[in-house]
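Bit of a strange request maybe. I'm writing a small parser for structure token strings and I need a real example to test against, not something I typed by hand. Could someone generate the tokens for this chain?
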Amino acid sequence: MTPRTPSPRGRRATILDVAAAAGVSRQTVTRAMNDMAGISAGTRERVQKLAAEMGYSPSRFAKGLVQGARISVGLAIPDLTNPYFPAFASSVVEAATERGWNVVVDDYGHGTGSAADAAARLAPQVDALIGYLVPHPDEAQALMGRRPVVALDSPDADTAGGISFDYHHAARLALSHLVSRGCRSIVFLDSDQGGPSGSRSAAAAAVAAEAGIHLVRSQAHPSAAAAASAVAVHMAGEDRPDGILAFNDLMAAGALKALQESGISVPADCAVIGMDGIPLGELVTPELTTLSLDLRAVGRAAVGLLDGLLTGTIQDRSPEAHLTLRHQLILRQSA
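Reply from user aminoacidic:
Good idea to test on real output. This should exercise your parser:
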């Protein structure tokens, strides 16, 4: 029998495509791909050969249903040295463990690693993927095929599901508070790494323009040390800011250090607001005012969404498969 090409170019081959090409039932393909009894060695070999030629590999989720294996979830994280990501990762592990799932973590943000590299490493091992995948969420979904990907902070991604954050809401909370304190020259201390930086920066700029707020964007590597250096430069100039909104709490901590070393009183001379709400904010002096996310809730939402996609209670790429979460302004001593 000459196998026919069963699917349009670019579409991942399915079990039904292999069954049609081999002239056998779906159950026979399942038996062949899982080395189960009940079919001849010749049929098994023919089906496996066709599957390889067509680029078909069985879903690990479906394989788990046949073999009784536990579901394995990939978790792609860009930088576990940033306190935000361990807090998020622990919530994913907690929620996944409650379901009896395994979690495989890939920390890709060091050296020349990328989200696409992480997805390529995880794809052969897992049934589904959760992660911060900018700028490669669509590539990650392509690598995973029909297995679901839940992308964090990638609102335009063509993934099975996603969780985004309402940065316009966050910017309104922060900038309104700074203005209410009398701040008139505000710096948005931005990351220079791309990704979510663009969303946060664009939201801050748009909200400032709407409200007639003077906002200056300053970029630095998203670390405390780099942020401190950038703020020191601003404080050495003639047009000193009297308010700082930082890309994340780690950069805000660096800003506090630079202000202290420059002899600038916080919040009297310059108020500082961070973003993310990691525990670090309560350990610095003064304690950090921040736009906080409930990271435990974010992780549990991602796992819950993935559960729905795996079981079919949530349809792939449906409105229900994409959630938008909001920050809360936590007022402390720095603003």
